[in-house]
Amino acid sequence: MLEMSASLTAITAIAAVVVAAAVAGFVLRLLGRSGSNKKTAPARKKASAVTIDGDDDDTSDVQKFEGVLLRDKSILPCRFSVGMRTFFCGYDPASPKRTILQAFKPIQEQSNCIFAKHARIWAAHDYDPSLPIADNLASSLRAFALFAAAQRGIDGFLFAVAHPGAGATLASHAYNINQILRFLSDRDPHGYRCMDKSFIDKRGWVFSFAGEEFFITTFASCYNGTHARYSYGVEDHTFLLLQPYHSFLWHDIPNDTPHTNWDTPQTSRDRIRLKFRDAGMPYVIPADPNAHPVATSIVPPLEYGGPVVRWWECDSPTAMEIKQS
Predict the structure, then answer these.
(1) Spatial separation of the C-alpha atoms in residues 163 and 140, rounded to whole Å
(2) Which of 294, 295, 274 lies closest to 283, judged by CA?
């Protein structure tokens, strides 16, 4: 555990240096631009990329670092080439050939989320059902640490538990989610260990790793075709997608609100809610998003508006009853 923690700390430190260099270069250019004597701002030029190992042909994962100006599209992109991703992670988490990404494809392509089809996702290492969950997760720790510490422009990181019966029941799904998040929390390079907190079910808790906070969405076959977390026929899988909150800013998704313009949708959030509703797959919209405990939405109940599933207390995949409140 100590060796793995040191490895993750090293990866996040290296990533931080890369981020700092990229942001510093952007700031210097910004200062130079603001100091111009011209009355009109010069036309923006495409920022040159910081390429870690010189692989200029790999353009599928160009990253843009937001700093304090996330919405400014002129921010310096920093990309990690295939070779460097493989060097750091032991595999290429961005490869579309990842078996987890292939299994997730029906969900991504058929989701009512207007951003899903074009989302850029990294994935965990191919799952080996002959190994325990923890052993499978260990093979993806370095990739997730790199993603959490440095990547911008990547919308999410996908984990899965894949074996016969995985996610077939709510208890199995809840147990798998609890196992994944506790494994990651226990190995947080920053040592915060969010899953050890006593207020998981309260306002203010959010899953974090390496100093980055994440919005979490899960999918499993225990949810039927009228549920927003329906897996579109994909069985024997529990999927967990971690999206850094900067991804929402990157896509100009407005702050959460209980209000929806159903008749004349004005925002991307309005359009997403409308699409889910019209597909017969509505999801619960909190009356007060600012006071809503985010953990209670990670593993939603099987029925719309059902009791909260206390997945963080689920310690058995075969429990006859799961704790609800």
Answers:
(1) 17
(2) 274
